[in-house]
Amino acid sequence: MEYEALNPKLYARVLDDLELVISHKPFQVLFYGSRERGDYDELSDLNFYLLAHSTDQMKPSFIESISSALNHLESVAPVNMIAGDTESLRMRMKIHEPGSIQLLENASVFYGETLWENLQNEWKSFRNREVSIIDLTSYLEKRIRFFKQQVTKNVKEEISQLERICTLTLHIWAIKNINDLTLSEIIKMDTPSQLVPLFKLLYQNEMDETTLELLDLNRKLYAFKRDARWKREIAREEIFELKHKLISLRKDEEFLLNY
């Protein structure tokens, strides 16, 4: 795991700051992504998942304290943190939502104890159950609607919004069109660097022209997303073009109206 190779003083500083965070309930910080798996490159960021009670997450000071502690690691690579509570993650787990499966199968504990271990024990009873196409598709479509309603403040947020919508659209396509998806395939669908190779290797015969174009668009958005995290300049005209391409491929009049 990448964090084990960090400068010991830097790692200790992060842990010390996390110890000082005030919370009403126990929380954990999980480490996941390419730097956890070991297949990262020089542009890979550090991905963390904050597992905390919803009452704590509602306090800006709590989230800010966690972010401040983790941001010491910006000297290593850009830090990306998302947050969720146990109940929402449990719900996602039960329907085999790709992001939750990615965490349950590959994440490690960076800080804290108990919450994650309990969820992983529960996951063992759901792991081999059949994926409910209806439930999972419905959830992913709700997530797309959520991202479409976001008001982006800058290029970085806009790229992230488009990348998530494009990725989730591809997830829905695979769930509806590919029989007997394996856990390995579901995890790769939620791994940005592995999604395109997965589709091209295994689903080439099933994909139509629109899906192929979405796949190419996803590749471009992923590259832009990495550039944005490393604060490289990106022309707004290029983002404008990709956004309209996504709207066109999805035939998404609602997104067009929101734009």
Automatic annotation (TrEMBL):
Protein name in the entry: Nucleotidyltransferase domain-containing protein
